[in-house]
Design brief:
This protein has four helices and no strands. The protein is mainly alpha-helical and 85 residues long. The chain has one domain. The chain is elongated, with a radius of gyration of 14 Å. The protein starts with a helix and ends with a helix.
């Protein structure tokens, strides 16, 4: 992300992840149209598109947290319990 853009949206150009939520600022900016959380809430835990996958899980699986049709593959409901996911 270009420093000027970081200053405009309130992020730290020297930090890769200003709000320390696990989602890099550039990715948050791309998916939030310039609206980055700076600590008041935790967007990583949020489910912006309502598809039952947190934003951080979508970032980790390279899916779009703003599109309910773009989500990680759904597994059997008991599988995450067994795998600790």
């Amino acid at each position: 992300m270009i420093d000027v853009n970081e200053y405009k949206i309130g992020t730290n150009p020297k930090a890769k992840d200003t709000d320390s939520d696990g989602i890099p600022d550039g990715n948050e900016d791309k998916n939030r149209n310039g609206k980055i959380d700076t600590g008041e809430t935790n967007p990583a835990k949020a489910d912006t598109d309502g598809d039952r996958f947190s934003n951080i899980k979508e970032y980790q699986k390279n899916t779009d947290p703003d599109d309910p049709k773009s989500h990680p593959p759904r597994s059997m409901p008991w599988l995450p319990l067994l795998l600790g996911d």
